[in-house]
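User: My instructor asked us to take a sequence, write out its structure as tokens, and then describe one feature of it. I'm not sure where to start. Here is the sequence I was given:
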Amino acid sequence: RQIFAMLFLPIWLCGWAFGEVSAIQSVSHGIPDSGGMLFMAVWLTGWTIGGVFAVLTLLWNVAGREILKFGSGSLVYRRAIGTLGYDKSYDLLQVKDLRAVPTPAFGTRRGLDTMGLSGGQIAFDYGSSTVNVANGVDEAEAKQLVALVKGRYKV
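Assistant: Let's start with the prediction itself. The structure tokens for your sequence are:
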């Protein structure tokens, strides 16, 4: 959980909602200048997309979770916000080199952690791809989880 995001985003979303409502009213009442209408439509589209990302980021930080299930020859990875989510299944025999990977202190990946988009601090190779899971877990916890899993499964 990112405490700053959980505190900041509700306040930011209040300002965002004001801008969204104002822009919708401007577009719905019509702006005499066609160039102004085009600008407002483009701006409203970008503003709306930004708001959707902010809401999803807030929801992820409040109710998001990742679940790893090992067993029956498969690894099932679930990402969910509340009851809505998706599962991805991996053949456990194809999972190789399970390891903890550190999160950089700065950079794009660190910023994506806040939104739950960076992948995570546990990685494994699957075919020709590297899969990252366990977003928001710190490096020490990732190492403990990897050791626990390796003690039970041959990955």
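For the description part of your assignment, you could build on this observation: The two ends are 28 Å apart (CA to CA). Try explaining in your own words what that tells you about the chain.
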